[in-house]
Amino acid sequence: MRKAYLSLLALAVLALGVVAAGGFPWPSQNFPKEVPNPPASYPPGELGEMVKLGEAIVMNTNTHPLTKDYVGNDLQCKSCHLQGGKGKNRYATFVGVATSYPAYSPREKAVVSLEDRILNCFMRSMNGTRLPVGSKASIAMAAYITWLSTGLPVDQNPNKPIGAYNTPWPDPAIVKLVKAGSVDADHGKQVYEAQCAACHGPDGQGVGAFPPVWGDRSYNAGAGMANVIKGASWVKYNMPLGNAHLSDQDAVDVMAYVNSHPRPSFKLTDHLAPAGQAGVYNSNVPQQIIEAPTWPPKKK
Ligand code: HEC
Ligand code: HEC
Fold it and tell me: Is the beta carbon of 80 within 6 A of some atom in ligand 1?
């Protein structure tokens, strides 16, 4: 009897925890623990051609003839989705991502498709313009990302437009530090100079093929990366390139430093396709302007 009460109590505590966390436990299906390898071969025929086109766009977004006019900076999708999303890094991989769509997006306050999610990265991370929904490049990227989920179970995400391997997102340890006010951009400058400047430049403008991390040629103020919590969650698992090892505190501090520099501000309406070419933009996102620098947070 007592045992039954105890397990009921445990269930109630679990349920409360879930409600407090603002969502349902997800993913609910059994995904392999490690990020699986990408499929061994491309699909046959026209579909395979679209998948390969999508991959080429993800790798060369700012120079590819089908997308270059829609990109407003020097980045490619693969600048953040390392190895074109084929890698095993959490917070960068596209493996498993397609299984979670259509998903609820708190930012858009709407249920969005995978294609919508891709086009939103064009407006923010790429500081560009939404491609028309259903256009060849848009379908090609969706085909590529969907192919990378081959064989994994469908498991739509009711909380966030994020794939199975990018959860929990953002990283709980990072959220805790930032919420506690443990953010030191001056220390972040030291981390940056020691561990980042060799590739991204002391002035943040990138060196050779290494991309800029602030200024006009980088992501805009509306991008996930411009948010210290999200940026630090990404950096923790992905940078320095090939050797991600920063402590939680160093990741927070360095992204506070990076995001304390100027970059393009974000006004949603500047990033929509011209009227009549957009298709439907399924969103209830507020029309506010987000200004850089995004750190320190502006006082209301
Ligand atoms: C400046 C970095 C950056 C660039 C460039 C970028 N993304 Fe992202 N992308 C992110 C971050 C960070 C997230 C997750 C966090 C969020 O929701 O803000 C994300 C999330 C996504 C997701 C949701 C799935 C998941 O689990 O992460 C998709 C799909 C996606 N990006 C596609 C693209 C495509 C396609 C491009 C190129 C057109 C692109 N992204 C360019 C940073 C970037
Ligand atoms: C060895 C070189 C190298 C080092 C060191 C390095 N990065 Fe990167 N970083 C890259 C490359 C290359 C990319 C883009 C990945 C690609 O295109 O394959 C990138 C991408 C990024 C991006 C997303 C794209 C952009 O330009 O905004 C951010 C943010 C970033 N790095 C931050 C950092 C931070 C912070 C550090 C230090 C903790 C760091 N990097 C250290 C090479 C490096």
Answer: yes
Q: Is residue 282 part of a domain?
A: no
Check pocket membership of 214 for ligand 1, CB cut-off 6 A: no
For residue 53, which of 132, 126, 127, 147 has the smallest C-alpha distance?
Answer: 147
User: Residue 200, SS3?
Assistant: helix
* H-type alpha helices, the chain: 2-20, 45-59, 114-123, 136-147, 172-179, 185-195, 197-200, 228-238, 248-258
Quick: pLDDT tens for 182-219. Answer: 999 999 999 999 999 999 999 999 999 999 999 999 99
**Domain assignment present for 13:** no
Our count of domains for the chain comes to 1
**Domain presence at residue 22:** no
CB-based contact 263:219 (threshold 8 Å): yes
Alpha carbon of 60 to ligand 1 centroid (Å): 15
Q: Which domain holds residue 52?
A: 45-166
How do residues 98-147 score in pLDDT, each as one tens digit?
A: 999 999 999 889 999 999 999 999 999 999 999 988 899 999 999 999 99
Instruction: Show Cβ contacts of residue 134 under 8 Å, excluding neighbours closer than 6 positions.
Output: 115, 279
Residue 62 Cβ inside 6 Å of ligand 1? The answer reads no
Residues in a beta bridge with 108: none
CA distance 130 to 123: 6
Identify the pLDDT of residue 23: 63
pTM: 0.92
177 inside domain? no
CATH number for the domain spanning 128: value is 1.10.760.10
